[in-house]
Design goal:
Strand order of the largest sheet: 3-2-4-1-5
Largest sheet: 5 strands, mixed
Protein name: Dynamin N-terminal domain-containing protein
Distance between the termini: 23 Å
Subcellular location: Membrane
Strand content: 5-15%
Pfam families: Dynamin_N
Structural class: alpha/beta
GO molecular function: GTP binding; GTPase activity
Number of strands: 8
Organism: Alcaligenes xylosoxydans xylosoxydans (Achromobacter xylosoxidans)
CATH class: Alpha Beta
Order of helices and strands: HEEEHEEHEHEHEHHHHHH
């Protein structure tokens, strides 16, 4: 995954994993390249950190989010390898590896860009997700990074890219902030950057993660609960909005809509508290959040890659 600083790469990976494993905040939080491998059936997450020469520094068989955050802040650590079961995955292939990269535009560390593209050279990458913050869409940093990315993708025939338009749950519809208009703006911006017919997936990654956490009876902070209620209200207002707005292959959209149709909404009152919601409601929120669309798109692209 690639993005400018604070666009939400780590939050998106957490949502795909279904656990608050990687630190995410409204500031630069990823200093190391981190690989996260999906291993269904494994108990907990195993992890290790490596130096710039590839030497293993520390290994843990049950690594915690606090430990990963500590590794990420250690100047001697250049790469973190994690493996464990993804909670929210919908039939994702075993041994699928997600790659989290530092924001190349971090003004506090000019070495970040080198680390990102070094990782591209050393690790076989089949599919790229570029994360766009819906509130910082057409920034100069995005334009500069997209130009560099476009050159590298042109040099790698067969490498595909999709764009995740993150934090769409923060749009204020009462102020006229329309999802379809933002998706169209993103598409035009990406086409101008050289990406013909870009795939764009509007997503609310944080809300999807909190829904998965609530489903597993994990505690949420007050701010997380507020973000989750906001997303639930959006689901009430326009349930299939994100799915319909996504620019993805028709087969991917059909699979997501099929998943939604198999979940019966219970529609309890939102004032009843987070835990009053049924499992199906948490699943529906994850399904319509854009995360399920990304999961199906990953499978779709992987199948296409294996057939080529």
């Amino acid at each position: 995954m690639v993005a400018t600083v604070s666009a939400g790469k780590s939050a998106l990976i957490n949502a795909l994993i279904g656990r608050e494993l990687l630190h995410s905040a409204n500031e630069a939080t990823t200093a190391c390249v981190a690989s996260i491998e999906h291993r269904p059936g494994q108990s907990g997450f195993h992890g290790r950190c490596l130096s710039s020469t590839g030497r293993e520094l520390v290994r843990h068989d049950d690594v915690s989010a606090d430990q990963i955050r500590s590794w990420n802040g250690d100047a001697h650590v250049r790469r973190i390898d994690l493996s464990g079961p993804f909670r929210s995955s919908r039939g994702l292939a075993n041994r699928l590896v997600l790659l989290d990269t530092p924001g190349p535009n971090n003004s506090m560390d000019a070495d970040h860009e080198k680390r990102v593209f070094d990782a591209w050279r050393k690790i076989p990458v089949q599919f790229v997700l570029y994360v766009l913050d819906i509130g910082q869409l057409t920034t100069a940093d995005n334009k500069a990074l997209l130009r560099k990315l476009h050159r590298r993708i042109k040099a790698r025939p067969g490498l595909r890219i999709a764009f995740v338009l993150n934090k769409v749950d923060l749009l204020d519809r009462e102020r006229g902030e329309d999802l379809q208009a933002y998706v169209a703006q993103a598409r035009a911006f990406l086409e101008e950057a050289g990406f013909a017919e870009p795939m764009v997936i509007p997503t609310m990654a944080a809300a999807a993660l909190y829904a998965t956490m609530a489903r597993h009876d994990e505690p949420l902070t007050r701010g997380q609960r507020a973000r989750l209620r906001q997303a639930l209200q959006a689901m009430e207002d326009h349930e299939q909005g994100l799915v319909s707005a996504a620019i993805v292959p028709a087969a991917v959209r059909r699979r997501v809509l099929k998943d939604l149709s198999e979940l019966e909404p219970t529609r309890p009152a939102l004032s009843g508290g987070d835990q009053a919601l049924a499992t199906e409601d948490w699943q529906r929120l994850v399904c319509m959040s854009g995360i399920r669309t990304i999961e199906h798109l990953i499978k779709h692209q992987r199948n296409a890659y294996e057939k080529s």
